[in-house]
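$ fold --in a.seq
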Amino acid sequence: MSEPLRAGDPATIGGHRVLARLGAGGMGVVYLGRSGTGALAAVKVVLPELADEPDFRARFRREVEAARRVVSPWAVAVTGAEPDAPTPWLATTFVPGPSLGEAIRRSGPLPTSSVGALGRMLAGALRAVHAAGIVHRDVKPANVILAVDGPRLIDFGIARAEGSTALTASGLVAGTPGFLSPEQADPRLERLGPPSDVFSLGCLLAYAATGRPPFGEGTAEAMLYRTVHDEPDLTGVGTDGHGDATTDQLPALLRECLAKDPAARPSAAEIESRLAGATGLGGAWLPEHVVRDIADRSARMLALPDIEGTVVDQPGAPQVPPPGGTSRRRVLALAASGTVLAAAGGGAAVWAVSRDGGTPSTDDGWALGVHADLSGSGKDVGQAHERGVRLAVEQHNARGDKPFELRLRTADDRGTQQRAKAAARSLVRDGGVLAVIGPTTDEAVDGAVATYEEAVLPMLLVKPGAFRLVGRQYRAPLHCRPLVYALGFLIAMHLTHHKGVSYPGVLQDRTADPVAWQVTQGVVDGMRKTRKRFYPRVAPAVLDDLGPHVKDILGAKVDAFVYAGTAEGAAGVARDVAAAEFDGLRAATEEVAEPAFLDGAGSAAEGWLIGTSFVDPERMPKAESFTRAFRERFGSPPGRYAVEAYDAANLAIEELVSGARDGRPPERADLAKSLRASRYRGITKSFVFDPEDGRFEEELCYLHRVENGEFRFLGAVPGPGEE
């Protein structure tokens, strides 16, 4: 947790406003800082006595440069540094979750399945660290931060490039007893290699599985002695009944990691490979109680000095900033910095992209890929994606002036994160696939993004709209829609301009977090922008009955009701609101635009307004030719997101054609770069992107109203200043 600033702490560091203390160590103090763009960062300031040491700055500069080369979803990224400043500092992305050590102390050991997933992801982080020529040297529970989508390895404070001189003084042991390798226990050894980090990882995983270090506790000297001379105590590892075929090997794998001889230990890449099938229970890498702890910790950490909490009398109510505080751009920056429970995941894997860097032989031809849920619970949306892209490809191939033909490759993930990784691999392996439309769910994005990123295969996201990828150092993803935050913001703007709305109520259902949180934050910022009063409440995750929360909100005499959550949750809320004879405006966002809402709510759904990123092309004159062509080709009206997928496919096709040379399209990496710089006017919207992170730059939201048991398209919500 953060600590208040002290009298001697600086107000700013390297352009970061200092907000709080995060901790202190042997190298310096770590502060929570905010950059000029609003992004949060963990800013480490080096101690003056170290800064004055001869040759320190040169060594520090080398290590900063090496740390910048570490690119992994599971390691925090360096966002800034000034080794030559009077007070040297280093900034990394800020992750607000608890450390692994805090989580174990609070909730006890993790299930075997979670330990396996933790090991897979941290091994991936260490693989990237070692590939950059760095040895971390302090892999311990306090340096692993937990997030919903995976762990983050932090604190490279004593890390150093292989073969370089350590920052610590001669004769001192660098690291944390209990998680040190035997070679680290001997301060006379100047050179440490990657096997040292592997040993520490073994200690950390044993601790996560049992709640105790494998070489016991006690004085530093006693722990170091046992580390060098004793065998590890792995009693209890893998015996909780929550393992699988992958994690059954965990005890043996940890013994290999904890071998006294560095040469006998597996590499980080080998550990990652051997744990490739470890994903946690039911695909969720952490147990539910730890996820709730992460959410609560994150909410507390976001109570920053210039964000004032709303006066509410119920535990878990959201912290709502006052007028003039957080802007929409700042919230996007918060998400980019890791403040939102975001950042995409999935085990990273290196794949041979093709025979010549991304362009296949002409025997196979070039292709667009569709990665979607084609046979699972979300198959309607997935099949609409596939048909929209197929129509675009066929229309391209019918042109007489085309420089090349395209084929269509599909990959079905059935709506699961694990299958998403396999689906991505199948498309990456086909060197002819130059861009992918999909995946179709945020969860599938988590499973697939690392694979696409390794191949720099552009992934055009039509339906997923969470913050997960924004601000990460990715080159492949492109958001072809506004983020869900923007939907919440524009819904709020619509409410505040609606006659008769002066005091809305907002209910965030944590079952749908992090999307529900992001929608709620957009609503909150929209209300604040217009200085509207509102009444917020938060419902804990997986709560069967939201009735008491609805009653509480309506009891506050609100005149509008906004729900951020699932379609199933919205159905129950709609019934409760209708039973209370509330006749004010009721609104939600596109997660609710599902048959489950209409079926579950029945007549209580009538009149609800739903803000979405998708349109109904049959009610858009501009889409008439598309709708006609779609019906002629497939014999049915276009489903949800069909025209959006069609637009995304044509965006990719236009860039492929414009970048073609001698009848050959550009390679994957070149296409990924040109897509972010492109401007394309489609049927549904104009596409403009942030070239740094691929975020859709326009603020856009479409309204639908439930009428006669159906979603009726109303058109776009006017943006700020348009009404």
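$ fold --in b.seq
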Amino acid sequence: MQEGTMELMWRTSPMSGGNAHYVEALYEQYLVDPNAVPDEWRNYFDRLPHPDGSPAQDVPLGPIRDQFYQFGKRRLNGHAGTVETSGENKKQVKVLQLINAYRFRGHQQADIDPLNLRARVEVPDLELSFHQLTNADLDTPFQTGSLFLGKDVAPLKEIVEVLEKTYCRSIGCEFMHIVDTEEKRWLQQRFESVRSKPKFSKEVRRHVLERLTAAEGLENYLASKYPGTKRFGLEGGESFIPMMDEVIQRAGGYGTKEVVIGMAHRGRLNLLINILGKSPSELIEEFDGKKVNEQGSGDVKYHQGFSSNVMTPGGEVHLALAFNPSHLEIVAPVVEGSVRARQDRRDDTDGTKVLPISIHGDASMAGQGVVMETLQMSQTRAYRTGGTLHVVINNQVGFTTSHPLDTRSTEYCTDIAKMIQAPIFHVNGDDPDAVLHATQVAVDYRHQFKRDVVIDLVCYRRRGHNEADEPSGTQPMMYEKIKKHKSSREIYARRLVKEGLVSEDDTKEMMEKYRDDLQAGNHVANALVKEPNTSLFVNWTPYLGHEWTGDADTSIDMKRMQQLAARMCTIPDGIQVQRQVAKIYEDRRKMQAGGMAVNWGFAETLAYATLLDQGHGVRITGQDVGRGTFSHRHAVVHNQKDGSTYVPLEHIAEDQPRFTIHDSFLSEEAVLAFEYGYATTTPKALVIWEAQFGDFANGAQVVIDQFISSGESKWGRLCGLTMLLPHGYEGQGPEHSSARLERYLQLCAEHNMQVCVPTTPAQIFHLLRRQVIRPLRKPLIVMSPKSLLRHKEAVSSLEELANGKFQMVLADQGKLEAEKVKRVVLCAGKVYYDLAAYRAENERDDTAIVRIEQLYPFPKEELYEALKEYTNLEQVVWCQEEPLNQGAWYQSQHHMRVVADMLKNGMGRELKFAGRPASAAPAAGYMSVHTEQQRQLVNDAFNA
């Protein structure tokens, strides 16, 4: 602990001033027995930072601070007590090994299953005999080592009792896989000091009962009103609601301003009503089948998102529940992206102000690969969010027909989290006090260490996979037990009545009041803010209600553009640039001065510079984005002297918006989902994900299908995400040729997204600028080039960048006499340059070549304008590199026919195809076959 930090803590703490003597006395009690002080003070003391060394001798210490430092020093450096018994050394070591064994494996003997169906494995490590100890040693005092017992020496029986209570009751702790000693000591102290069972006040426990009553009350109400209707109820896992209530309130106390939640179906409606404060009357309308959304297809009620504000001890907190499809865990990386965007907006670099919560099912957490991908990104530069709180609603059965032996190969469904050294707390859902304690420790851990933490809420599912399912057909033994099992609320209520904290009448009154509020349509969430602070929301107003338009003023003053180009080409002295990269930057300086034609890398990078200059942030991630897969971008310069990096686009102006560019880890699904989440929360920025090769996006197809293409229709979620997908047939085989253009076109409808195939540097310059400058937020799918990045013909002028715009159709660039043109070849992408080369070589002045640069929304009017001058047309041909059954042909030919029919001689029926024959694979694997196919399709375009 640094002295300045301790002094600041002391000055701003209620432990100083007139309260000091009182608090000192409380603190001394806490050091001996944490349960002896009120829970609010225990929570405060729990969160005090622990020292990592002794204070300087010349710093005056009050009694409480002196105690604090002595307490921490003993724990860190070992206890100084001695035990004077013969042969103690050997047994002392064995006792310390026994203590460690409980920390490592006590969870395997913990009472975490409400149904008591879980077969506890035998753990020899927890037996005295395993450590060469016997019952005769139980009364022998031993040093307690680092055990948080409140004293240095204790009889072995007391040590064992403490270990049993701490690690083998309602909470099973897994944290010894963590390599950081400070984190392990912190967790040991939190659990061992209170034996994993702190004493909560009467008010706290009554509040927990009230929240349990709410959780059960909603399910009972819906079950009676809509029997057999799917709702994926929370029965059996009701402790989830007081858990989430505590998470939000405790996080708010730490200064959290936003909480973003991702979860699948089970318990979602309960969370919406009892935590987020959705109106019960709205939910009833959805159950009655009334259309809530004015536009789009809508979605089922247990996929819907929601947002609201609640009041906490630290002020108002904005809650957002992410929309998600039935692909369960895919929402997790979307949440992370949304959280990172909110943190960037708040300059929340350590994640204090925005908290992500991912709520999992047991089978999906163990079974779905995106969970691993999301965990893997948690500490990377591009994707870290300061730690995620993971909650598993563990039904112990997954989906109804599964057998536990078939759902995973690991002991716990949460074992995947060990790979990032996340602590895992398995807790019995029928012990709400234990749930509350595990929740508090989890929130505190995340706040303290900014790392992921997992709560495994072990519960059960009173009904089947859904309310129309009969689970006993495949799970007879489990559901025989469940039929006889009391609910968590009833068990807890009886406990509180027995302890004299509430009466039977109190519990009945809680239930009746909740049901009355539901029937009246009243909000039933605690601390809901009726007039929320709108500054906590992202303002989407400027982007709402715009009809589709392809036009936008993307021009820029030439002088200003050249100034920005000079800045993006400037590399400070002292940075030794690699030889080929130095040549790229030297050429860019010539382009900036007008001495060379503009290539793709220059135009693309300049588009980012101009957007930054106009106040738009830019974020780019993907594999190899720093340099570009094909080494065209080099937005990140690597110093050859020391390996440090320099990003010129971060230095366009002193007060510029954020420019972020990071190479991603080797994932497509989680990374694309993350960027979708980021883009849905950051409307003003240009957010880009680039695939290493376009067909690598295949690994993220669920994100494309369920979010990018349909999110607006289902949920009204606008998104301006841009996907750059390298596409083009270069003879590199089936997996490095096609970005599967046909898949995106198949998903296009209702102006849901844009699919473009730019072929010049000026086109990509204006296309990227249009994506942000135009107040329309639609996903942009770009079939970006590979060989065109350096093609000698694929160049533009500075004037085209400064004064042009994105042209959805590029008319023929040759100097043809319109009346001589008998054939028009329509195409998109790289094949244009092959067609142009053929025409020049064969002097075919009877054939015009027209490029369709935007395939969706299809530019019918612009295409007609490009064709109408050819009054003597005899044939229109569509030429593509892709096989007949792929590419744009099947999805776009009807649009081309409509335009061709608009011509004077009605050419729609004469539209022909030139391309590769239908194929199961996207491309040929042999260069000789590729070359012959390419030659043939170009020849067919002119001579078919």
